[in-house]
């Protein structure tokens, strides 16, 4: 039966939504509220058919955004009654070890998501605000939580326990969780579809390279290893995040620069990565253009980024004992032929050869004829994955 299902992604001052007709997967409308809570008005933008509109609307919290959104759907005739909404899927940052897959939100699930705020203090509380706002306006509509972490719950203990005292895992849940799970799962399934091979038969390395960046090794359709860790700060160098560094640098900076723990935390999350190394931008478009003009620091930052991605691919190829498909996705992965080329250069040992012209065209399969590994550029669509899971669960 046809159903209208909405995805909701609530951030601290934003709320993104997409409404799909399922099972056809037709996108009916998508949009975004920004600057929520900063003033008495928020910015609302949406696109529907050919129309793209940006306007400001009254209201200063997520509840007001949700009230406005539902009224908007009725007024624009996207639905004739709110009863037509058969489910809402929410992106939730952290599912800890409680949620190994997406879950219908009942009282018990909501309590667990709130308890997991300890592990994701900036994200889970605001995801809960989104869920509760929808529950208030649509009390009879099933809500589903889709977690950034759950795809990685298939990792074995050897890949998620940190070599710290084991009691920190037992008492405080300190372990690798991994994030971007919805995206890695989505692009892996798309790649298998494209290659017309069962997902379970492929060894896949998925590189989600956006402002936040992570890599995932996938075998039998399951996440085996991923680069983000206890938090999304770990692993690769990112737009403003440092990724893996020698942990002793943290107390060193605290002592030498007289910084508090939270100041170092902010430094590593918001003032490092591309931004920290170049001192002028976190955006790889700016950095590539400066590197072309001869800016040495911009070149260094790009070399560092590509090098770390390459090293991680090598490590994961060892973990998987080979790689059938190497996937690039998200802002950098989908759009930057320059960075993909830097990463794939001199990877012939792994059977990775790319075709320059296909790479420059952002083609879906950029491997050359003689490449044993299929190198692919796949657009991620976390919202569609959320809506698919929601549709399946309801
Ligand atoms: P987020 O993690 O915020 O969702 P995205 O996946 O949207 O990030 O990726 C955003 C990043 O993608 C931008 O900061 C920019 O660095 C990069 N990007 C987008 N288009 C290009 C391009 N054509 N060339 C290089 N980098 C790009």
Describe this entry's structure for a reader.
The structure is a single chain. By secondary structure, the chain is α/β, with parallel strands linked by helices. The protein has 2 domains: 3-147, ATPase, nucleotide binding domain (Nucleotidyltransferase, domain 5, 2-Layer Sandwich), CATH 3.30.420; 197-382, 2-Layer Sandwich (Nucleotidyltransferase, domain 5). It has helices at residues 62-75, 107-115, 124-137, 157-160, 166-172, 181-195, 249-257, 261-270, 273-278, 284-292, 296-320, 330-335, 337-344, 356-360, 382-393; strands at residues 3-10, 15-22, 26-34, 41-48, 51-58, 85-92, 103-104, 143-147, 203-209, 213-219, 222-226, 325-329, 374-377. It has an 8-stranded mixed beta sheet with strand order 5-4-3-2-1-6-8-7, sandwiched between helices. A 5-stranded mixed beta sheet has the order 11-10-9-12-13, sandwiched between helices. The radius of gyration is 21 Å and the shape is globular. Bound molecules: adenosine-5'-diphosphate (ADP).
């Amino acid at each position: 039966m046809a159903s209208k299902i909405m995805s909701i992604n609530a951030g601290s001052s934003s709320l993104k939504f997409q409404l799909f007709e399922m099972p056809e997967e037709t996108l009916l409308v998508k949009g975004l509220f920004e600057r929520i809570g900063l003033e008495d008005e928020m910015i609302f933008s949406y696109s529907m058919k050919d129309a793209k509109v940006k306007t400001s609307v009254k209201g200063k919290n997520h509840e007001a955004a949700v009230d406005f959104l539902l009224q908007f759907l009725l007024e624009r005739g996207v639905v004739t009654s709110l009863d037509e909404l058969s489910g809402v899927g929410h992106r939730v940052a952290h599912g800890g070890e409680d949620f190994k897959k997406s879950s219908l939100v009942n009282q018990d699930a909501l309590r667990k998501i709130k308890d997991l705020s300890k592990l994701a203090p900036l994200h889970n509380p605001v995801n809960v605000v989104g869920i509760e706002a929808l529950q208030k306006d649509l009390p009879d509509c099933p809500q589903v939580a889709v977690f950034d972490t759950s795809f990685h719950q298939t990792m074995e203990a050897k890949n998620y326990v940190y070599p710290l005292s084991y009691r920190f895992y037992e008492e405080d849940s300190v372990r690798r969780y991994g994030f971007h799970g919805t995206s890695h799962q989505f692009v892996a399934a798309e790649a298998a579809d494209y290659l017309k091979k069962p997902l379970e038969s492929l060894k896949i390395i998925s590189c989600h390279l956006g402002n936040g960046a992570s890599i995932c090794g996938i075998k039998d359709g399951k996440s085996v290893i991923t680069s983000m860790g206890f938090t999304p700060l770990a692993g690769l160098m990112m737009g403003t995040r440092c990724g893996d560094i020698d942990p002793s640098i943290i107390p060193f900076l605290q002592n030498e620069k007289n910084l508090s723990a939270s100041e170092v935390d902010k430094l590593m999350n918001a003032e490092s990565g591309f931004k920290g190394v170049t001192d002028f931008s976190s955006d790889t478009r700016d950095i590539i253009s400066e590197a072309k003009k001869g800016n040495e620091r911009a070149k260094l930052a790009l070399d560092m980024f590509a090098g770390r991605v390459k090293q991680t691919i090598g490590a994961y190829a060892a973990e998987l004992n080979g790689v059938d498909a190497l996937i690039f996705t998200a802002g950098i992965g989908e759009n930057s032929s320059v960075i993909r080329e830097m990463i794939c250069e001199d990877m012939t040992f792994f059977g990775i050869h790319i075709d320059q012209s296909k790479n420059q065209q952002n083609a879906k399969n950029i491997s050359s004829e003689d490449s044993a590994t299929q190198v692919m550029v796949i657009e991620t669509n976390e919202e569609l994955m959320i809506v698919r899971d929601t549709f399946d669960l309801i």
